[in-house]
Amino acid sequence: MLDASTQQEVDEDDDTVAKEDVLSRHCNWESYLTARLVDTHDLQLLRRYDKKSSAVRKSMLMQEGKAYAKLFTKILQNVSKVETVQYVLCLIDQILQEDSTNAELFHENETGDPCTTFLSLLRKDDWLVQEIAATVLTRILVCREKKDPHEYLRTNLDTVTSFISWLCDELRAPSKPPRSFLVTTHALARILMFRNARPLFVEAGGIELLPKILSFKGPLNVQLAYEASLVAWLISFDKDAALDMGKVGCVTPLVEICRTARKEKVIRVSAMALRNLLILETNPFAREMSEAGLPKAILTHQMHTVHDEELEQCLEQLDKLLSECIQTELSSFDRYRNELLTGKLQWGVLHKEERFWRAHAAEFEQNNCQLLLLLKSILETSSDSVALCIACNDLGMFIMHHPHGRFILKQLKVKEAIMKLISHPDKEVQRYALMTVQKLLISKGKLDFLTQSTA
Description:
This protein is an all-alpha fold. The chain contains 28 helices and no strands. It is 73% helix and 0% strand. The radius of gyration is 29 Å and the shape is elongated.
């Protein structure tokens, strides 16, 4: 579960200005009495509450809280004017924000379930109405689950199902990006805290939407990255759902969040999601995590001061699990040799994992440097841009991890073959060739220093 400070951060809204603007309006409640949309008693309640101080509002809710909940719900049902609907929704949101237990005022009563009204407002053609209705609905449903976790889904199944369906639809076709991404993801992060709601998200096709929000770049990115990772973590506790997450492309964006995040809460939750994916049987995503840069990300975070004990433990577990998975793949040098002998190189963990090169660099001298000469031959004869990039990469890795790598390659006249590729028509080939030439020209001591300083 989230700690109190994190939960508070999740609850913080970025739309304070918009809500304050709405609450600064003046509603002519008397006109609604004339239109018979409210009665005399309703008008008295509104006059005693509207535009009053926080202390007065609190006192009125303590005395007649359920009456106000019914009144505000009634106005939302009867009034179609958007400005008034926005205003009343903001009043309700204010009530729930000031005291989360006030959500109990909006539980089902003799006149029906107020959540039905909020669900209907999600379809209204006004984003602010949709946003506040979603926020209010989230607060009420979370309160209901906490009050009665055993009966929660049975008594609220239709409401929760409809709400999650709307959230997924909104992610598929956002009404107001990027704001709608954050609002919907925030709601999902709260609702999916409860295990019995997660299958509903899966059934609504939510898993296939996760890569979209995990990969989002732009305004609100930090908060969205946190809550998207939180949703991924919550869903990843189910093994079948976790496998589907990997299949639809969640692994690489999760690693990217973990790798680039600066806030510990974001690193922690993305790392926890990755850990759940890594402990699956057969470890199907270990290679993808490694190729996306997770080992280096773990090392980088561990080198910095970590104040979060849970994060520290998670990074240690991730490192251990990933090392064990990778070690299985790296245990045979024959696999690399066989791939090289075919001449058909493909990117994989053996080409990028530094632990492989540290363990096996010396073996490249075997059989009169046969494998190095094969790499040189690929540089000179291959027309496959991917194979050329990989050959340059592997020679660069050899230079970095063999104490005499530069000298050996110079003796084999590899430099000439690489230099020709700097003018290759493929930009990626040019890039890898240039990086390898730089490693050939820089002394081992300087190369080690640069490697350590960029780790």
